[in-house]
Amino acid sequence: MGGRAVSAQDDATGRGAAQSSGLVTSRIFAARALRELGDGFIAVLLPVYLIALGYGPLAVGAVATLALLGSALLTLAIGRLGARAEKRRLLIAASLLMVVTGLAFASASAPALIFLIAFAGTINPSAGSVSIFAPLEQAVLATAVADRDRTRMFARYSLIGALAAAAGALASGSPELLGRFGLARLDALRIMFVLYALLGVAGALIYARLPPEPVAVDPRASALGPSRRMVYKLAALFSVDSFAGGLAVQSLIALWLFNKFGISLVAAGVFFFWSGVLAAFSFPVAAWLAGRIGLVNTMVWTHIPSSVCLIIAAIVPSLEAALGLLLIRAALSQMDVPTRTSYVMAVATPPERVAAASMTAVPRSLAAALGPLITGALFSAGHDAWPLVICGALKIAYDLALLWTFRDVRPPEER
User: Fold this and answer.
1) Is 49 within the bounds of a domain?
2) What average pLDDT does the segment 88-111 reach?
3) CATH value at residue 353
């Protein structure tokens, strides 16, 4: 009787833990979907909106640089607070900042205000996971599942985010559709920034329904401890990759397509939608591949071919060839996202995970912040292909360095 009672109690405890884990992951996934929907259309519309306000390519690059730089500093602060404060409250605060950012962009036009909002807000010109939300969400999710399920869970997390971003890219054609009903182009663009703010409200409501953290937060906790050296090595390598990626963020790829080939906003939205869809469905493939060849090998051997496609796309003369190569790149280039996140969470101890995610993200954001300004300057000088070529070459160098440095450092599930 006693044995059966204990067994039943254990089963009930296991079911309760599974239900709590499912609740946490489903709500984090839903909040990310809403946020990425907004990032998806903002990344495409940001250069269009700034040009409509009278800004040139150099200023567009400067705004993207300030946005990435501000995101890096906010992420660094989140990393220091994450070990000492409840993550749910930090996520709600970040969502409210998203609300303020959208409303401020919709109403501002003066250069000083635009630059300030870009720096202090949550605008993401890359339509990727570079944001203050990511370290907090990743730490919460990594704690909610077992090691053997971690990469698959992050693949689903990335899949949902990418599909939402793809839908957002498709929605970036909305201002042109609204224009057919007589709405001025600038007003239609401002409506999209208001929509971005409303998505921030919805995200805050979802985060507010997360359960309390199972372990009490220690206000004296250290951000990084035994994993410090490993995290710093990863951060240094990731910064090279992100500097390269900053040369070809989605907003600037959109500007490149507008300038070189003259495609319409609707066509650009359709292209970035399919680009996002291909990236999204590469994530489950990445998780499957990682289970067979390992996380580091998956990161490297899917990334190199995507960089080759980017280099070739920069120099081909036809729109069709360039779009085809960019779509192939989209199907390969993001397979390192869930695997990279899973790897960082694996090499860090649970109390260090927010700090580890932050410390690997901050150098990436700082390095990426330099890229858009350089690209804007090169575009202004008429060197349209160079940013894409440099981006691809630097990414290949990063991949080879990552493979050499971490080929023998394996996460628990691969040992």
Assistant:
1) yes
2) 93
3) 1.20.1250.20
